[in-house]
Fold this sequence. Notes:
Layout: E1 3-5, E2 24-25, E3 38-39, H1 55-59, E4 66-68
Antiparallel strand pairs: 1-4, 2-3
Amino acid sequence: MAVIINDTCINCGACIDECPVEAIVDEDDNPTGEEIYYVYEDKCVECVSHFDTPACAESCPTEGCIVWGEVKDGMTTLEARGDAGTPCIDE
Ligand code: SF4
Ligand code: SF4
């Protein structure tokens, strides 16, 4: 499915330009109304065919801020992904 930005996001902006498929929006465009960055799950491909690990999580300075979402049928998922809710990157 996709990765999720949680509420520890500090709106630093480091991730947004790293995404190869422009799946990330800033707090002003977050459709949930939360004042944090947001990943569109229908756009995120978990960086498959682009990078070995999620580029957004690699760039994020906030430990544990970007986590794996639930796997859903029909969505591109990274083979080496972790369980839903766990951080994409181990610090
Ligand atoms: S995992 Fe990759 S494709 Fe998904 S939001 Fe992060 S940078 Fe974009
Ligand atoms: S890099 Fe991390 S802390 Fe910064 S805006 Fe993106 S998700 Fe939020």
